[in-house]
Amino acid sequence: MISKLARTARELINDRARLLGPNVSTFYDDPVHFVKGEGVWLWDAGGRKYLDCYNNVPHVGHCNPRVVEAICRQADTLNTHSRYLHDGIIDYVERLTGTMAPSLNTAILTCTGSEANDIALRMAEAVTGKRGIIATDATYHGNTSLVSQLSRSNPPGVGFGLDQYLRFVEAPDSYRRPDPGGTRFAAAVAHKIGEAEQDGIGFAALVVCPYFLNEGFPDNPDDWLKATAELVRKAGGILICDEVQSGFGRTGTHLWAHEKMGVVPDILTLGKPMANGHPVGAVVADGDIVAEFRNGYRYFNTFAGNPVSCAAALAVLEELEQADLVGNAKTVGAYARSRLLDLKDKHEVIGDVRGSGLIFGAEMVTDLSTKQPASEFTDRVINAMRQRGIIHSKLGRYKNTLKIRPPMPFSIANADLLLDTLDEVLSQTPLHT
Known about the structure:
By secondary structure, the chain is α/β, with parallel strands linked by helices. Helix content is 36%, strand content 17%. α2 (65-75) runs antiparallel to α9 (307-322), α4 crosses α8 and α10 packs parallel to α12 (412-428).
């Protein structure tokens, strides 16, 4: 068989449009064509090396040897669905739930975080008998027909009538509207609970990322969600914490961000980083909640919980523990944040610095007094960093906060390269074009 010559970047873009349809997302004005990854590094088709400061899917590093070996070993032995008995799914769920509060003791494995959140919302309906869901007005929780209706950062198309069951509260913003005790957020949730009950749909659940990553990871103090969790339970609702981005030690202080925020969710959803790129997600809850769902809904997924996926996911937990990657996130994150604060003193375009562990960033503004978002400038900074071999992105309500979320083996030397380069880019990029 004669192998086809590698496509150029332009050919790839054209073929994507032809074969995948229009509007398939790419990063950057000049999309990058990666062909290899290792640790925190990526290489493009031309052999250029890039520092990955964005991807949390390869949570323990691109092509992590422990995970690769586990996948290969299991794929060489058995891979089938979970209607046949196999040890892997039991070993993994026991190990996973062993890292959590006693009430989070049962899991349903899925293939994606979107699917996990979809199940979580149906679980809340099964338990409460109601359908009203509350989320923030600047979030993203996935792309199923149901879950996509929650996503204000990526507005859905046709709602299939599901939007009538949703209510939104203003996302926390520690820079412009500090709420250090979380009381304003709790009051807003209480108001929306009242609306849902008055409208006759009832209140089933509040769903949040406990660290509010898509909202721009505001600097909320530890235990910030306690007041909100208490009123959700008092109203008979379910607290769903979406830890697809914030979990597995990302904050550097705890393995799970809900611990940092002082709550134990009724339902926890997981995804992206679970198996270092192998498609695995999960819904974790108390056994009684899972039983309510299982009794009310027939659910089966051909690929979820297969032996290869479980082997990969178990290897991630082992790597996190044995390489002390949560401790690394705490150390490197604190260092990176201190360096970002130094850059803030130097560059007036940086209005705020925030983050915990290996999720950190800076919010860009055109004016420090008005805090006017510098969204277009932020986009140019990200593209300039890409041209210098640094990969990261942006998020938040105004898309003006640098999203720096590297693989967990990220080092102080990596942070220095990132921030030295950012210093240069901020010095060379005009605020206005």
